[in-house]
Specification:
It is built from nine helices and four strands; from the N terminus they run αβαβααβαβαααα. The chain is α+β, with helices and mostly antiparallel strands. It folds into two domains: about 180 residues, no CATH class; about 100 residues, Alpha-Beta Plaits (2-Layer Sandwich). The chain has a four-stranded antiparallel beta sheet with strand order 2-3-1-4.
Length: about 290
Amino acid sequence: MSSSFEKFQKRRLLSSYFSVVLSMFLVLFLLGILGFFVINSKRLSDDFKEEIVMTVFFKAEATDSVTTAFAQELKAARFVKSSEFVTKEQAAKQHTEVIGEDFMTFLGANPLLNSFDIHLKADYIDTENIRKIESSFRTNEMVADVVYDKQLVSLVNDNIKNISMWMLIISGILALIAMLLINSSMRLSIYSHRFIIKTMQMVGATKSFIRKPFIWQSIKLGFIAAVLAVLALIGTLFYVNTNFPGLHIMEDQLLIGAVLLGVLLLGILLSWISTFFATQRFLNLRTDDLY
């Protein structure tokens, strides 16, 4: 009878430990995913911004020396990421491929102009900076026109601001949920030992002496959950990098390492804090309140 009761207690204890590890693993994994999203969000938004093209058209009378001088000016400009010179012949070929027929056969001439397709650096893709850049290009007498999608620039910047704000809100909510879940799991685990805690206290054991084994046990569980979360995050990174190489999610390995280390430390720290306050609550309870 005693043996079966001990087995029952052991199974209940293992079940309690399993639920603690599982809940902590899920929360830490979710926080890790959010961390990866945060560190990659700026790079992804920058990549999207830098795909916006500003096209500078030159007048028909602009000579090769004019376009060469402009190309050198672009190379020296701090706001230019890359640029490409597109001749009117290349532009005509591209239009023919898009339209599906050669428009010059019935026009009899090529009405297009030589141009530069310019990709600006992400820090300069906002309404104010891009207008200044446009104005500086227009001061060149040989420039016929400067064209870019003004509506897209405004839309991109507004959306990025909104996404950043929501990311901060979601991060705060998830961090709060993580603390509440881990604290609840630890409290449930310690609840089953409340009578042992009170018995030890009645025979003269100090609070720190009683608290110490519970804290060490929870740190072990937190460490196990954090290691499992780190392994799952690494697996997720490799999966995403293999199936979506264009995202370049593995580029910044230093920040990735920082997130993984943060998950590991967070698992240990949250376990320690939650167990400390949970044991403190039961240490301060009266004997009658245990039932």
